[in-house]
Amino acid sequence: MMLAVLTVVVASVTTGGMAQARVRAASKDLVAALRYTRTQAIVKREPQFLTLDVERRAYQAADRDWVELPKEMELAMTTAAQEVVEEGVARIRFFPDGASTGGHVEVIRGEAVWRIDVSWLTGEVRMHAGSPD
Questions:
Q1: CB contact at 8 A, 100 and 83
Q2: Containing domain of residue 64, as a range?
Q3: Class of residue 19 by CB neighbours under 10 A (exposed 0-12, middle 13-18, buried 19+)
Q4: CA–CA distance, 110 with 90 (Å, rounded to integer)
Q5: Could you tell me which residues are beta bridge partners of residue 86?
Q6: Is 113 exposed, middle or buried (0-12, 13-18, 19+ CB in 10 A)?
Q7: Each residue of 18-46: pLDDT tens digit?
Q8: 3-state secondary structure string, the chain?
Q9: pLDDT, tens only, 83-113
């Protein structure tokens, strides 16, 4: 009996850990796409955009195809008002000097949340574990 209880506890901890790992991996991919877009703005010497569609749970980096997150994940985004394309679709713009319009994106799956912050002044992209806003 004790073994069965322990198995259930280990399985639930492992499942929670797997969810956290999946959200972290998806967030790392999004961070790479943001950094790529910033680099493209600097190299091409013209503004570049990363577009997010929170309804589709998808994003598109400069000159790249759309990437959809797994169905169990959600996206949340805060960005400058002028970067809202339509309801549920917005972007972060990077400038040739590396700066950006800034904002943050959250990749969420249940209680597992990773927040990605983009500095408006420097365009620096940072990721950290967070909690839903």
A1: no
A2: 2-129
A3: middle
A4: 23
A5: 89
A6: buried
A7: 777 888 999 999 999 999 999 999 999 99
A8: CHHHHHHHHHHHHHHHHHHHHHHHHHHHHHHHHHHHHHHHHHHHCCCEEEEEECCCCEEECCCCCEEECCCCCEEEEEECHHHEEECCEEEEEECCCCCECCEEEEEEECCEEEEEEECCCCCCEEEEECCCC
A9: 999 999 999 999 999 999 999 999 999 989 9
How many domains does the chain fold into? 1
Provide the whole-model pTM: 0.84
Closest CA to 103 of 129, 130, 84: 84
Strands 48-53 and 58-60: antiparallel
Q: Which of 103, 99, 101, 105 is nearest to 123 (CA)?
A: 99
* Residues shown for the chain: 133
The residue written with tokens 């967070």 in the block is 130
Domain holding 84: CATH number? 3.55.40.10
CA-nearest of 97, 122, 87, 111 to 41 is: 97
